[in-house]
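Protein record

Derive tokens from sequence
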Amino acid sequence: MFSAVMSMVCLAMIWNTSRRVATMGQSPSMCQYSVAFLSMEMVFVTGSLIISGSPCLQRGSPVLQGGEEALLRFVVDVFHMPATPILMKLIATVKLLVDTDQKARLLATMSRVNEACSWLAKRAFDLKSANKIRLQKLYYRDLRDMFGLSAQHTVRAISKVCEVYSRDKSKLVNFREHGAIAYDQRLYSFKNGIDRLSLLALDGRIVVNCAVGAYHRARLEGVRGQADLVYRKGKFFLFVTVEVPDGSPIRPEKWLGVDLGIRNLAVDSDGKAHSGEATLASRSRIAKLRARLQSVGSKSARRHLRELRRREQYFHSYTNHVISKQIVRKAKDTGRGIAIEDLSGIRDRVTVRRAQRSALHNWSFYQLRSFLTYKSLLAGVPLVAVDPRNTSRTCPECGCVDKANRKTQSDFVCTGCGFAGNADHVGARNIASRAEVSQPIVSAVRTGTHG
């Protein structure tokens, strides 16, 4: 709102000044026109408005009267203030190095908190209420007396039940014995930097050693928020929410187009392809194994199915992390922004053969886009989403749009000029071109948070 008001003030001053330039006999061409009649260039760069005036608008110029010079100085000073950085919420992983006694105490705490959550979930289900204030008023004292929880563990347990129950009030939720529990800043704290961790258990504080990788260690230097204590495969992990500022944004002159797909997970406008063959092979193998386990239906088979699902998620997440990191690094090193397709609702719009349905519905393009989004913000690389319509049918050389241009899944041959190339590469080039012509003249000041 403030920037809009100041922009109108600038335009009014510019218009009056331009009229005086003409009455003084000076050529209006002396002024630099950014948009139509504007005699000042106003461009937002990295969230700040840069005003570069012509010689007839410099301070001390005879065409500036009264308080206009002071106003111009004020506007320039205000808009040269640095933009408020966007704070992003990320997850940092901390591995807990516990001994036998510490492990038993933490497991007992998780078991008691989840038992309390299951008890409270039954009451919330009977009341058909997910109101935290109401449930806390009714059952706070009962939870503390019956389960021996601390005040803050009790509050976190109530919040956990409300959050889960509010998603679907038609189901009675039963929490796993060793399911994750929430720890806020009152329940955990780091000691000696981030090499030791203090956690509140049922019988008091536990100070444990912890292992943190270099990547997550850098993230933990930011503002730390709520965390989740997770017990997985006999090991404890603390997933800490941290707030980190985004990178200093660049103002790109060119764009790196990225075409997303199934056979090739991503192809950029430089021709670099990130193949999806390994992903397709993994999905095919897992689908066959899943079908066999489902046909058995035993308790052991169900346990293996859960493990199989977890392994598949890890594989897809790792693949998307690698691809997005390489794309963002290339864009940053070459001073370009990233342009991708806006694939919202693609599963509802696209019709495929029966044999291809599994590949389409297991395609984690949303996760890849979300990784590209947060990594580009951290690196200060602009990211835009463009309309994907006809990007694989348009010739990047002559602009001919024809369904017949796409000969096969991978081959593109223009019916107009004869240009031939890889269809995914052609799509990426068209995506980059659309990003170049669709950018606004002036963008908004970047403020607020992301996460």
Confidence is low (pLDDT under 50) at residues 17-83, 440-451. The chain is about 45% helix and 20% strand.
